[in-house]
Amino acid sequence: MDVRLLGCVEMHTSVGQVSLHTSVRRFLASLAWRPGGFVPDEVMIERQWATDIPQHPRQALYTYAARLRRALDGDGSHPRKLTLVRRRGGYLLDVERDSVDLHRFRDLSRLAKCAAHRGDNTMALRLFDDALALWRGEPLSDLNTDWAEATRISIQREHRAVMIGRAEAGLRGGRHEEYLPDLYQLSADHPEDERVAGFLMLSLYRSGRQDEALSCFTHIRSRLVRQLGDEPGTMLQNLYFQILRRDPGLNHTQGLPVAH
For the purposes of burial, counting CB atoms within 10 Å of the CB of 157, is it exposed (0-12), middle (13-18) or buried (19 or more)? Predict the structure, then answer.
């Protein structure tokens, strides 16, 4: 059984994707967010509707639960690895953590960060790549509730952290040119992020593109002054001057003079 939240909400079994109504997908996503965790009816109701709550919301939840159970039962041709449990006052999705793509993403990300911390950049990059390969688009992209939107923002922050972590591991491993496209995209998406700007500047410099690296600093400095009325932080300013004078220390792959 495979529950997917990193894109449209989907449920897959050994025989393929299971067709679920939108309301049942919302119900499933609310529980898969914390696999094995009890979710009270009140929380389920808030996640399902927020506004325009039906006259009998608990009865509606019972209906969605029944539909999900029928989908889980299928035709009986494959073993069930996911069970919907009703307990007094709420529901629980009894499923292995790695049956939900979001949690596989988080576990792989954690392992990648551990590998990077101990200096194994090759392993870190492999694990970061495996984590990012699970993404199929915007998380919960077919759900439009307030809860789904807040959850999307939270997961997208995790995605951003993994993208930055992968770029950093790439820099430490001497693969600065390979991850330039990712850094350009991150810089476009987060134009005021000094850490991203620093990694992009360093990647460009190590790729023999000093002028572009200096232009990156000029661009983010202009934006920060205009938007926030403030100069870039000390670490980014120091990096700018190191690039300006072609500091030999910037070529050491293990040295990343960028604030974390």
Answer: exposed
